[in-house]
Amino acid sequence: MTTDPHRAGGRPRVLLATYSDMPESHEDERSLSAALDELGIDSRWAVWDSPAESFETADLVVLRSTWDYTSRMKEFVDWCESVPTLANPARVVRWNSDKRYLAELAEAGVPVTPTRVVEPGDRARGDNNPELPDREFVVKPTVGAGSWGAARFLPEQRERALLHLRSLHDEGIPALVQPYQPVVDREGETALVFFGGVYSHGFVKGPLLDPADDATGSAGLGKGPFATDPAPELRRVAEDVLDATGELLGVARYEFLYARVDLVRGEDGEPMLLELELIEPRLNFLLADRAAPLRFASAVRAELARRAA
């Protein structure tokens, strides 16, 4: 039975899900337990696939640093569906785990970085392959975290790009092809963090992919991140992304306990969605104001109250 967080002496129990390589959380989120305790919520970190944990008895299980899930997708999603009090919910996890959601959001009218999905079995057509833009572009798997499997190519590197595309397809992995947005090299990506559908803080991430003339096209060191106060137009687009996602999934915006919306400006200066993180995003509390963990804790408390009602 779910504990009422407002009854006398009742302290709800929250598990913050992580993975075995980081059983005590990432340093960026060590302030969360204290923030939750201030609001009368007991919490601890728990490895998501540990047979010793009783996730089904927790008042709320919050996905945080479950950073090994992309290599164990079916097992992870099955586990998510077994946890009745998961946040964000399992159906949100299933939808957000495959970057083909970008095409759905684009169809819903959200400004999204131009994205083409190339499924295994699609016929490669050499230099005239319409899936490969005539400008610098990126090829990346539809399922993957960070920059895993992503590579950046120049137009004259189409053969190399096709080899990379085929290597993904040989593993049965669909791929996304997107024109590279050069503004990322100058300004980075802006990440906007929301708790319970309400904006909390923002930060800028530098480019994660090496320049396309790097022979490997592999993930680079990047720059940053650093705190930022996002411009109003970025805030508006981020809010639109959450509203559109809620409509697609049939959930109210406040039901997203946490969300990170990664935006980039196009060549015309207008914001576009690069990625929406609803599973286990880095929230960079260390870059935010001191009240950010408390805002997270307040959103957890509101979610507990909603589920207890």
Automatic annotation (TrEMBL):
Keywords: ATP-binding, Nucleotide-binding. Residues 119-134 have a biased composition (Basic and acidic residues). Residues 115-134 are annotated as: Disordered. SUPFAM superfamilies: Glutathione synthetase ATP-binding domain-like. One of its GO terms (molecular function) is metal ion binding. Residues 102-305 form the ATP-grasp domain. InterPro entries: ATP-grasp, DcsG_Biosynth_Enzyme. This is ATP-grasp domain-containing protein. It comes from Actinopolyspora alba.
